[in-house]
Amino acid sequence: MLDKFNSERIKITKVYYCPHHPKITGSCDCRKPKAGMIRQAIEQFNIRAVNSVLIGDKKRDILAGENAGIGKNLYIQNLLREGSF
Ligand SMILES: [Zn+2]
Fold first, then answer.
1. How far is the CA of 81 from the centre of ligand 1 (A)?
2. Which of these, 19, 45, 50, 65, could form a disulfide with 73 (CB 3.0-4.6 Å)?
3. pLDDT reported for residue 1
4. CATH for 2-79, among 3.40.640.10, 3.40.1190.10, 3.40.50.10890, 3.40.50.1000?
5. 18 CA to centre of ligand 1 in angstroms
6. What is the pTM assigned to this prediction?
7. Tens-place pLDDT, residues 51-63
8. Which 3-state string (H, E, C) describes the chain?
């Protein structure tokens, strides 16, 4: 994925992911729609959430953005097609 973005001259500074599963590891703060991963990025990179844009292809992405106080949360499910990334 990062190679594809790089080939399009899009720089990805860091990738966050939730290593947990509710049925295996129990609840966590980073699994969307919770905002833990976004809050981690906000803190790490001193991001102003209200001035930020989140783009997601799942409703839980949008909910996580809203829960983190992101200013604009764009739902683009219908724009994504297999092979476009
Ligand atoms: Zn997690």
1. 27
2. 65
3. 86
4. 3.40.50.1000
5. 4
6. 0.82
7. 999 999 999 999 9
8. CHHHHHHCCCCCCCCCCCCCCCCCCCCCCCCCCCCHHHHHHHHHCCCCHHHCEEEECCHHHHHHHHHCCCCEEEECHHHCCCCCC
